Prior knowledge:
Layout: H1 3-14, H2 18-31, H3 36-48, H4 52-65, H5 70-83, H6 86-102
Amino acid sequence: MNTKEYEAAVDLFAHGKKExxxxxxxxxxxxxxxxxxxxxxxxxxxxxxxxxxxxxEWTEKLAxxxxxxxxxxxxxxxxxxxxxxxxxxxxxxxxxxxxxxSKPKEKK
Length: 108
């Protein structure tokens, strides 16, 4: 994966060009369907655009690709809560908590 392409997509989002950022992230995923950061970013871009169904769709793809990705479940919890699906939000929150507690702690 070309990190410059990803950084450019994030930069588009940072400059308020959300639609362009979404298209750039989808283009990255077309080239590299395993690039998890692009899924997470795409989900957040759609969330910030108020397009919850698309935010959920892309974040669910991330969770399917990387079931151990705690942030995917955290974001899904937020997205489902915004949609008013408290039950599903709680399920996703629980998954995130379990994943966070099951990770080995870093040594200081």
